[in-house]
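Q: Predict the assembly, please.
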Amino acid sequence: KAGVTQTPRYLIKTRGQQVTLSCSPISGHRSVSWYQQTPGQGLQFLFEYFSETQRNKGNFPGRFSGRQFSNSRSEMNVSTLELGDSALYLCASSLADLSTDTQYFGPGTRLTVL
Amino acid sequence: AQTVTQSQPEMSVQEAETVTLSCTYDTSENNYYLFWYKQPPSRQMILVIRQEAYKQQNATENRFSVNFQKAAKSFSLKISDSQLGDTAMYFCAYLSSGGNTPLVFGKGTRLSVIA
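A: Predicted assembly structure:
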Protein backbone atom coordinates (compact mmCIF):
# COMPACT_ATOMS: atom_id res chain seq x y z
CA LYS A 1 0.00 0.00 0.00
CA ALA A 2 1.40 3.38 -0.97
CA GLY A 3 2.26 5.80 1.80
CA VAL A 4 1.27 9.41 2.28
CA THR A 5 2.44 11.54 -0.62
CA GLN A 6 2.98 15.27 -0.67
CA THR A 7 3.58 17.59 -3.58
CA PRO A 8 5.62 19.51 -4.31
CA ARG A 9 8.58 18.42 -2.23
CA TYR A 10 10.32 21.79 -2.46
CA LEU A 11 8.98 25.25 -3.07
CA ILE A 12 10.52 28.70 -3.19
CA LYS A 13 8.27 31.74 -2.99
CA THR A 14 8.64 35.42 -2.26
CA ARG A 15 6.94 37.46 0.43
CA GLY A 16 3.36 38.35 -0.37
CA GLN A 17 2.76 35.44 -2.68
CA GLN A 18 0.44 32.57 -1.91
CA VAL A 19 1.11 28.86 -2.06
CA THR A 20 -0.89 25.63 -2.21
CA LEU A 21 0.43 22.33 -0.92
CA SER A 22 -1.12 18.97 -1.64
CA CYS A 23 -1.38 15.77 0.36
CA SER A 24 -2.68 12.37 -0.70
CA PRO A 25 -3.37 10.07 2.26
CA ILE A 26 -2.89 6.35 2.46
CA SER A 27 -5.68 4.58 0.63
CA GLY A 28 -8.65 4.12 2.95
CA HIS A 29 -7.53 6.82 5.38
CA ARG A 30 -10.12 9.50 5.90
CA SER A 31 -8.39 11.85 8.30
CA VAL A 32 -5.66 14.23 7.19
CA SER A 33 -3.70 16.48 9.54
CA TRP A 34 -1.20 19.19 8.72
CA TYR A 35 1.80 20.23 10.80
CA GLN A 36 4.39 22.96 10.47
CA GLN A 37 7.93 22.06 11.51
CA THR A 38 10.56 24.72 12.20
CA PRO A 39 13.84 24.54 14.13
CA GLY A 40 12.64 27.08 16.66
CA GLN A 41 9.05 26.01 17.28
CA GLY A 42 9.30 22.31 16.52
CA LEU A 43 6.19 20.54 15.27
CA GLN A 44 3.02 22.57 15.48
CA PHE A 45 -0.44 21.42 14.54
CA LEU A 46 -2.19 23.40 11.82
CA PHE A 47 -5.51 21.65 11.20
CA GLU A 48 -7.21 18.34 10.67
CA TYR A 49 -9.82 17.29 8.15
CA PHE A 50 -12.14 14.35 8.24
CA SER A 51 -14.76 13.62 5.59
CA GLU A 52 -14.23 17.02 3.99
CA THR A 53 -14.83 18.86 7.26
CA GLN A 54 -12.31 20.69 9.37
CA ARG A 55 -12.55 19.10 12.79
CA ASN A 56 -9.72 20.76 14.59
CA LYS A 57 -7.57 23.81 14.12
CA GLY A 58 -4.32 24.92 15.67
CA ASN A 59 -3.29 28.39 16.67
CA PHE A 60 -2.34 29.83 13.30
CA PRO A 61 -3.53 33.01 11.58
CA GLY A 62 -6.29 32.96 9.02
CA ARG A 63 -3.72 33.13 6.23
CA PHE A 64 -3.41 29.40 6.69
CA SER A 65 -6.35 27.46 5.33
CA GLY A 66 -7.08 24.03 4.03
CA ARG A 67 -9.64 21.78 2.52
CA GLN A 68 -10.30 18.14 1.87
CA PHE A 69 -11.84 16.57 -1.18
CA SER A 70 -14.23 13.66 -1.44
CA ASN A 71 -11.34 11.30 -2.22
CA SER A 72 -9.70 12.39 1.08
CA ARG A 73 -6.91 14.27 -0.67
CA SER A 74 -6.18 17.53 1.10
CA GLU A 75 -4.69 20.86 0.23
CA MET A 76 -3.43 23.63 2.42
CA ASN A 77 -3.07 27.20 1.31
CA VAL A 78 -0.98 29.98 2.75
CA SER A 79 -1.74 33.47 1.51
CA THR A 80 0.37 36.61 1.80
CA LEU A 81 3.49 34.67 2.63
CA GLU A 82 5.85 35.95 5.30
CA LEU A 83 9.49 35.07 5.90
CA GLY A 84 8.46 33.22 9.05
CA ASP A 85 6.35 30.81 7.02
CA SER A 86 9.52 29.12 5.82
CA ALA A 87 9.22 25.62 7.21
CA LEU A 88 8.74 21.97 6.51
CA TYR A 89 5.03 21.25 6.16
CA LEU A 90 4.08 17.72 7.07
CA CYS A 91 0.87 15.94 6.29
CA ALA A 92 -0.30 12.89 8.21
CA SER A 93 -3.18 10.54 7.59
CA SER A 94 -5.05 8.11 9.79
CA LEU A 95 -7.89 5.67 9.32
CA ALA A 96 -10.73 7.38 11.10
CA ASP A 97 -10.29 9.94 13.78
CA LEU A 98 -7.58 11.56 15.84
CA SER A 99 -8.52 10.04 19.12
CA THR A 100 -7.57 6.46 18.49
CA ASP A 101 -5.67 6.08 15.28
CA THR A 102 -1.99 6.22 14.56
CA GLN A 103 -0.96 8.97 12.20
CA TYR A 104 1.34 8.19 9.30
CA PHE A 105 3.37 11.02 7.86
CA GLY A 106 4.32 12.05 4.36
CA PRO A 107 7.80 13.23 3.35
CA GLY A 108 6.87 16.88 3.72
CA THR A 109 7.03 19.98 1.57
CA ARG A 110 9.96 22.29 2.22
CA LEU A 111 8.75 25.87 1.74
CA THR A 112 11.27 28.67 1.53
CA VAL A 113 10.01 32.25 1.54
CA LEU A 114 12.46 34.87 0.27
CA ALA B 1 -3.18 21.29 27.95
CA GLN B 2 -0.90 18.36 27.59
CA THR B 3 2.82 18.90 27.24
CA VAL B 4 5.63 16.59 26.22
CA THR B 5 9.21 17.13 27.33
CA GLN B 6 12.33 15.58 25.88
CA SER B 7 15.18 16.71 28.07
CA GLN B 8 18.03 15.45 25.86
CA PRO B 9 18.46 17.64 22.77
CA GLU B 10 21.31 15.50 21.47
CA MET B 11 22.74 12.09 22.17
CA SER B 12 25.28 9.81 20.62
CA VAL B 13 25.91 6.09 20.86
CA GLN B 14 28.42 3.67 19.48
CA GLU B 15 27.25 1.19 16.91
CA ALA B 16 25.93 -2.05 18.50
CA GLU B 17 25.48 -0.36 21.88
CA THR B 18 22.23 0.41 23.68
CA VAL B 19 20.83 3.90 24.17
CA THR B 20 17.81 5.23 26.04
CA LEU B 21 15.94 8.38 25.06
CA SER B 22 13.85 10.09 27.73
CA CYS B 23 10.38 11.54 27.49
CA THR B 24 8.05 12.88 30.15
CA TYR B 25 4.58 14.24 29.69
CA ASP B 26 2.02 16.11 31.65
CA THR B 27 -1.65 15.19 31.56
CA SER B 28 -4.65 14.85 33.80
CA GLU B 29 -6.21 12.22 31.58
CA ASN B 30 -6.27 8.52 32.33
CA ASN B 31 -6.61 7.19 28.80
CA TYR B 32 -4.24 8.23 26.07
CA TYR B 33 -1.65 7.01 23.59
CA LEU B 34 2.06 7.64 23.38
CA PHE B 35 4.27 7.37 20.34
CA TRP B 36 7.86 7.54 19.31
CA TYR B 37 8.50 8.82 15.81
CA LYS B 38 11.81 8.82 14.00
CA GLN B 39 12.78 11.46 11.46
CA PRO B 40 15.98 10.58 9.56
CA PRO B 41 17.88 13.19 7.57
CA SER B 42 15.64 12.32 4.59
CA ARG B 43 12.86 14.01 6.61
CA GLN B 44 10.26 11.24 6.37
CA MET B 45 8.65 10.88 9.80
CA ILE B 46 8.37 7.20 10.62
CA LEU B 47 6.40 5.59 13.43
CA VAL B 48 8.70 3.62 15.71
CA ILE B 49 6.43 2.41 18.45
CA ARG B 50 3.03 3.03 20.03
CA GLN B 51 1.84 2.50 23.60
CA GLU B 52 -1.71 2.55 24.91
CA ALA B 53 -1.89 3.96 28.43
CA TYR B 54 -4.32 1.30 29.60
CA LYS B 55 -1.81 -1.44 28.80
CA GLN B 56 0.68 -2.16 31.54
CA GLN B 57 2.91 -4.20 29.26
CA ASN B 58 5.64 -2.19 27.59
CA ALA B 59 5.50 -2.11 23.81
CA THR B 60 8.31 -3.69 21.81
CA GLU B 61 9.19 -3.56 18.12
CA ASN B 62 12.30 -5.55 17.27
CA ARG B 63 15.26 -3.57 18.65
CA PHE B 64 13.02 -0.81 19.98
CA SER B 65 11.28 -1.01 23.33
CA VAL B 66 9.74 1.42 25.75
CA ASN B 67 9.70 1.81 29.49
CA PHE B 68 6.26 3.19 30.25
CA GLN B 69 5.81 4.45 33.78
CA LYS B 70 2.28 5.79 33.96
CA ALA B 71 2.43 7.10 37.51
CA ALA B 72 5.66 8.93 36.81
CA LYS B 73 4.36 10.07 33.40
CA SER B 74 7.50 8.80 31.78
CA PHE B 75 7.88 7.10 28.41
CA SER B 76 11.47 6.32 27.47
CA LEU B 77 12.66 4.60 24.30
CA LYS B 78 15.41 2.01 24.38
CA ILE B 79 17.27 1.17 21.20
CA SER B 80 19.30 -2.01 21.40
CA ASP B 81 22.13 -2.99 19.07
CA SER B 82 22.21 0.53 17.60
CA GLN B 83 22.77 0.74 13.86
CA LEU B 84 24.02 3.57 11.68
CA GLY B 85 20.54 3.79 10.16
CA ASP B 86 19.14 4.71 13.56
CA THR B 87 20.74 8.14 13.23
CA ALA B 88 17.78 10.53 13.27
CA MET B 89 15.67 12.95 15.25
CA TYR B 90 13.38 11.11 17.62
CA PHE B 91 10.11 12.67 18.70
CA CYS B 92 7.93 11.61 21.56
CA ALA B 93 4.23 12.37 21.04
CA TYR B 94 1.04 12.26 23.08
CA LEU B 95 -2.47 11.68 21.81
CA SER B 96 -5.56 12.03 23.93
CA SER B 97 -8.06 9.21 23.57
CA GLY B 98 -11.03 11.41 24.24
CA GLY B 99 -12.18 14.05 21.85
CA ASN B 100 -10.59 15.19 18.65
CA THR B 101 -7.29 16.59 19.74
CA PRO B 102 -4.07 16.55 17.76
CA LEU B 103 -0.76 14.90 18.47
CA VAL B 104 1.37 16.87 20.90
CA PHE B 105 5.07 16.53 20.17
CA GLY B 106 8.18 17.00 22.22
CA LYS B 107 11.05 19.07 20.85
CA GLY B 108 12.94 15.97 19.80
CA THR B 109 16.25 14.29 20.52
CA ARG B 110 18.91 14.16 17.85
CA LEU B 111 20.57 10.75 18.00
CA SER B 112 23.85 10.06 16.27
CA VAL B 113 25.08 6.50 15.93
CA ILE B 114 28.85 6.42 15.60
CA ALA B 115 30.76 3.66 13.82
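The mean pLDDT of chain A is 92. The interface with chain B takes residues 33, 35, 42-43, 45, 48, 55-56, 58, 88, 90, 92, 97-100, 102-108, 110 of chain A (CB under 8 Å).
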